[in-house]
Amino acid sequence: MTPENPIAEFEIGSGGARLTLYASRLAFQGGDAMETVPLSHLAAVRVAFERDPRKLNWAIVLLVIALILVAVSGPLQGGVAGLAAGIKAQAAGRESLDSLLLAVFAVLGGLARLLPFLSALLAALAVGLLVFFWLGLTTLTLSFAAVERAYSVRGRNPFMIQFAEVVAAQLAARKA
After folding, report:
1. Integer Cα distance of 124 and 132 in angstroms
2. Angle at 70 between CA 69 and CA 76, to 5 degrees
3. Which of 19, 44, 65, 123 has its Cα between 20 and 30 A from that of 4?
4. How far apart, in whole angstroms, are the C-alpha atoms of residue 28 and residue 9?
C-alpha cells in the first residue's frame, strides 16, 4: 500500500490540530483525537467570518457600569466623610453609638475608595471583550448527512478560506 499525498493541509490554532485533505478523504488530527471522513459522506462545506455580538453587548454593559462606579465614588466618599465629621463634632455622651457609626462610615468610605479600582478592572475586561469581538472567528463547517463539524480559528483567516475552497473543489470533482 502506497501512502497518499495530501492535497491540502490546514493547522487549527497552535495546539497542533490539523485538517488534511486527501483525494478520497478528509482527516482531522488533534490532541488525543483523530477522525477520518470519506469525501463521499461530505454533503457541503461552509466557511464564514463571524463576530459574536454578545461580546460587544457585554463590553458596553461593563463600560457603563465602570463609568457609573467612577461617577458615584467621589460623591460617596465626600458624603461619608461629611457624615463622619458631623458625628465627631456632635459627640456628647453617646460614645458607643457614635463609635459604631464612625466604624460603619469608615467601612463605607473604604468601599467608596475601592470603586475607582473596581471600575478600572471592569473597563479592562470590557476592552478585552472588545478586542475578542473585533478579532472574530473564522469557522469552517463540514456538513454530513445528519451531523455538522465546525472548526474555528481566531480572526479573519484567509488560509482557512483557501482550504475550504480546495475541499469544495475536491468535493465537486467527486460529485461530477
Report:
1. 13
2. 75
3. 44
4. 10
Query: Do 24 and 126 touch, CB atoms closer than 8 A?
Result: no
**DSSP type of residue 144:** -
pTM to 2 decimal places: 0.69
| Residue in the block written with cell 497518499 | 4
**pLDDT class of 1 with cuts at 50, 70, 90:** very low
Can you tell me whether residue 156 is helix, strand or coil?
coil
Q: Where are the domains of the chain?
A: 8-51+142-175, 53-135
Q: Is the CATH number of domain 8-51+142-175 2.30.29.30?
A: yes
Q: Are 122 and 66 in contact (CB under 8 A)?
A: yes
